[in-house]
Design a protein that fits this description.
The chain has helices at about 20-25, 30-40, 80-100, 115-125, 145-155, 210-220, 235-245, 255-265, 285-290, 320-325, 330-345, 350-360; strands at about 10-15, 45-50, 70-75, 105-110, 130-135, 160, 175, 200-205, 225-230, 245-250, 265-270, 295-300, 310-315. By secondary structure, it is α/β, with parallel strands linked by helices. It is globular and about 60 Å long.
Length: about 375
């Protein structure tokens, strides 16, 4: 993806990798995609990409010509030696510090342990540091890295969060739950549905994300089709796919293949378990990919972040999910998805994000 070059003196610290590398190593596709969109939205002049030590070949990194801006790829030493790991950690963070310290405004895509020391060094250097908080899980213990990150996050100049449901308070806090980016710019005037109503569950396949709920429910919905993509509980997904002809597991897909799959789907599922602590604070930004491609969504959580959007709600039970699916009115879907698309286009476009970023920086 090409990004335009801007003289914003704005630096981003995060991780951005080619789609092929993400697939090969099973890394977070959602995080990588969002970082790519955020680079466009923030009009960054410099991106510092920290990448994990499991990647051996420099050809598996983004080429510096991939973006029309300055790109610095940073990695430590691959070793199993504890002392050398510590030295590697120091070197990585010192490199990030040296690369970022000349920028007027520095943004971190989440605050993680691997880059925490660089953040502390830049704070000591009295730099303007901001955080895009894509994921947040509150610490259960005072004496933990998570709690230290909680305290240090509050030392930033400002936070933009994807979720409004966080106990992290900051005097300069804004939340924008998603970015409407280039792949979804064209509105489809006509919507067609599969003869067999087809549903998608994609992403991390875990109990907290509702994989068991989906599989058990669709084993009883023989006249509906469930497509699953992603990594996590692969064995249980493959077991159900082998037993039930209406369930298909595609494995972990490249982003392009995922978009092709999404184009063939009628309805998307967001079945997060509301009883899990992380689901009480985070918002699945993948929902906006569904809105952007004009898909109807069934969610098991009533998200305040999308209170203005229309979607179907189910309780976290097989009975409720099956009942909601049985009562879907296809004739109403086009109007629902058209309204959602318009809201997304008007409030979460790249320019709206850039204005939010500039406003936060200009308040200092």
């Amino acid at each position: 993806m090409k990004a335009n070059k801007f003289n914003t003196n704005r630096t981003l610290v995060g991780t951005i990798l080619p789609d092929s590398t993400i697939v090969k190593y099973g890394l977070s596709q959602a995080g990588n995609n969002f970082t790519s969109k955020f680079i466009q939205a923030g009009k960054f002049s410099h991106v510092i990409s920290y990448y994990p030590n499991i990647i051996n070949d420099e050809n598996e990194l983004l080429n510096k010509d991939s973006f029309d801006l300055k790109l610095s790829n940073i990695r430590g030493i691959k070793t199993t030696n504890v002392f050398l790991k510590f030295i590697s950690y120091i070197l990585i963070n010192f490199k990030i510090f040296i690369s970022a310290k000349s920028a007027k405004n520095i943004w971190y895509y989440n605050l993680y342990p691997p880059t925490l020391l660089s953040y502390i060094l830049l704070l000591c250097y009295r730099k303007n540091i901001y955080i895009l908080m894509a994921d947040y899980k509150p610490s259960k213990y005072f004496f933990s890295i998570s709690y230290l990150i909680f305290l240090l996050t509050k030392k930033s100049k400002g936070i933009i969060s994807l979720s409004s449901r966080t106990n992290l308070k900051h005097k300069k806090f804004n939340f924008i739950p998603g970015i409407h980016a280039e792949f979804c710019n064209s509105f489809k005037q006509e919507q067609f549905f599969n003869k067999t109503l087809t549903f998608l569950m994609s992403g991390t396949l875990s109990e907290s994300n509702g994989i068991s709920l989906a599989l058990k429910s669709f084993s009883k919905l023989k006249d509906c089709k469930l497509i699953i993509s992603g990594r996590g509980c692969e064995k249980i997904a493959m077991k159900y796919a082998a037993k039930y002809s209406n369930i298909k597991y595609l494995g972990y897909q490249s982003y392009d293949n995922y978009l092709e799959t999404l184009n063939e789907i009628d309805i998307c599922l967001s079945l997060r378990n509301p009883n899990y602590e992380e689901n009480k604070h985070n918002f699945p930004s993948k929902i906006f990919e569904y809105f952007a491609t004009q898909k109807l969504i069934i969610s098991t959580i009533d998200y305040p972040e999308i209170k203005n959007f229309n979607y179907l709600k189910a309780h976290y039970t097989e009975e409720s999910l099956i009942s909601v699916i049985r009562n879907i009115n296809l004739s109403e879907i086009k109007n629902i998805t058209a309204v959602n698309y318009k809201i997304l286009q008007n409030t979460m476009n790249l320019e709206a994000w850039n204005e939010a970023i500039k406003k936060m920086e200009n308040e200092n």
